[in-house]
Amino acid sequence: MICDSDPPKDTHAMRAGPSQEEIRRHNLGALLRHVHLGGPISRAELTSRMGLNRSTIMALTADLTAAGLVREELPRETGRAGRPSLVVRPESARVYVFAFDVGVDRLVAARVGLGGTILDRRETVRRRDSFSLEEVVGQLASFARQMRRKTRSDTVCVGVAAAFSGGVDRSGGVVRFGPNMGTAGDVPFAEEMTRRLGLGLRVVVGNDANLAALAEQTRGVGVGCRDLVYLHGDVGVGGGVIVNGQLLGGHLGFGGEVGHMIVNPDKGRPCGCGSSGCLEAEVGERALLEAAGRFGSQIGRDAVRAVVDAADRGDIVAQAALNRVGDWLGLGVANLVNLFNPEMVVFGGMLREIYLGSAAQVRSRLAVDALPPCREHLRLRTSALGDDATLVGAAELAFSQVLADPLEVLARAGS
After folding, report:
1. What InterPro entries does the record point to (predicted)?
2. Is 244 in contact with 162 (CB distance < 8 Å)?
3. Measuring CA to CA, how many Å separate 101 from each of 49, 90, 366, 388?
4. Quick check: helix, strand or coil at residue 297?
5. Secondary structure (3-state) at 314
6. How far is CA 266 from CA 269, 275, 287, in A?
7. CB-based burial of residue 34 (10 Å sphere; 0-12 exposed, 13-18 middle, 19+ buried)?
8. Cα distances (Å, whole numbers) of residue 170 to 13, 136, 188, 241, 244
9. Containing H/E element for 108?
10. I need a surface site. Which of 18, 124, 378, 415 has the fewest CB within 10 A?
11. Rounded CA gap, 220 and 348, in Å?
12. Strands across the sheet with 95-102, in order?
C-alpha cells in the first residue's frame, strides 16, 4: 500500500541535473552574450572568460557560425608569434531586432543589429495633448516597414520590444497607467503592436526607466556594477533599481516607480497620479519651469536645458529654481540610497541636466540624510547613453530571447 506521505518512485529522475542539451543551450547563449555585449573577441579570451576548454569553445562557435549568428576571422593585428587565435564577431548586418521608444514628446523606432549596432533609425515628435493607440502604433509600424524594405533578403528579425513611459504589466504588455502620456484605462500596447507589425513575433513591452537602467548596466556608465539605481526624467520621473545584477521588477512589473515616492507630504505639489508631494511633482519639468517663471513659454528638454544654462550664466531666478528642485532630488536620492545601498546612482533623461545644475544640493542632502555606510562608496553619475538609453534598453529586451536560446529562436524566426 502506498500512503500519501510516500515519496514518488522515480526520485532519481527528479533529482537529476541538467541534461547535456540544456548545458549546451546555456553555453551557446553565454558565448553569444559575450560577443553581443563585448564585441569581437578571440577564442582564447572566450576560453578564459567562460572557463571551458578550447575544443568546447570551437564547437560552440562552429554551431553559432553555422546558424549565421557569428563569424570567425583572423585578427587584424596580433603582435605575437605563433598561430593567432580566431576572432569571433557578431553578424550585426544579418541578425537584428526592432526597438521602439514611446516617450512623452517623441516616438523612435530603430533596427538594431546583433552586437548593439543601430543599423537604421526613425524619429518623430509626439503631441502631449492626448494619447491615441491607433496613431502611435500606426506610426511605429510604418517606421518598421520602411526600415524592413531596406534590408537584404538574407536578414532575419529575432525580436521586437518597446520602451513605454508608463507602468507596464509585464505578463501581457498592457500599459496600466501613464499619467504623463495622457492614457486612459488599460492600453493593450503589445497586442496591438504585434498585430500591426505582422512579423509573427510577439512584441515585448517594458517601462522606459527600467529598460534604461538595464541599458546603462550592460552598455553604459554602469557596466560591471551589480547594484545600481537609475533615475529617468521625461516630464515626470521614473526609476529602475538593479539589485545584485537583477532588475527589481515587483510582483507584476511595476517595481521601481520611484517618481511616486512621497517626499513632501504636508505642502506637496499635486502629481498626475492623483497624490501630492511625489518626487516627480517636486523635481519634474513643470516644478522646475514654474519655479524659474518660465512655464508655458516653452516645454520639453530644451526648456529644461535653457533654465540650467541661464543658471550657469548667473540668472538668480534660475539658480534659485535649480537649488529648490535639487534639494528635493537629493532627498529622494537619499531615501533610495538608504533603501537599496546602491554602488551607483545614474541620472538620465531630463534629470541629467537637472543634476548637472544642482549637484551641490544633491550631495548636500546626501551628506545629511543618507546613512554614512550607505553613502561611503556611492558614485553619482550621468547617463553615458544619453537620450538613447531607453531605446538601447528596448533593443536589449528584444535580444533577450535569442541570447537565452540562440538556435531555437533563430530557427523559429527564420520559419
Report:
1. ATPase_NBD, HTH_MarR-typ, ROK, WH-like_DNA-bd_sf, WH_DNA-bd_sf
2. no
3. 33, 24, 32, 9
4. coil
5. coil
6. 9, 12, 17
7. middle
8. 33, 20, 12, 16, 21
9. strand 106-113
10. 415
11. 11
12. 117-125, 106-113, 95-102, 156-164, 203-207
Place of cell 505582422: 198
How deeply is 302 buried, as exposed, middle or buried, from its count of CB atoms within 10 A (0-12, 13-18, 19+)?
exposed
Q: Are strands 174-177 and 70-73 parallel, antiparallel or unpaired?
A: unpaired
Q: How far apart are CA 349 and CA 387, in angstroms?
A: 6
Enter the DSSP assignment of 325: H
Q: Which amino acid would we find at residue 138?
A: G
* Count of residues making up the chain: 415
Q: Are strands 246-247 and 344-349 parallel, antiparallel or unpaired?
A: unpaired
Report d(CA 272, CA 37) in Å as an integer. Answer: 37
Question: pTM of whole model > 0.85?
Answer: yes
Query: Cα(321)–Cα(390) distance, rounded to whole angstroms?
Result: 27
Task: Using the CB atoms, write b or e for 260-275: b if 16+ within 10 Å.
Answer: bbbbeeeebbebbbee
Mean pLDDT, 10 residues at a time, the chain of 415 residues: 47 64 93 95 94 94 94 74 79 96 95 97 90 95 96 93 92 88 89 95 95 96 96 91 92 86 91 90 93 85 92 94 95 96 96 94 96 95 95 97 90 72
Question: Do 165 and 208 meet the contact criterion of CB atoms below 8 Å apart?
Answer: yes
Residue-level pLDDT at 77: 65
Q: Who contacts 237 (Cβ-Cβ below 8 Å, separation ≥6)?
A: 231, 258, 259, 279, 280, 283, 284, 351
Which secondary structure element, helix H or strand E, spans residue 102, and what is its range?
strand 95-102
What integer pLDDT is reported at residue 178 of this predicted model?
87
Q: Are 48 and 69 in contact (CB under 8 A)?
A: no
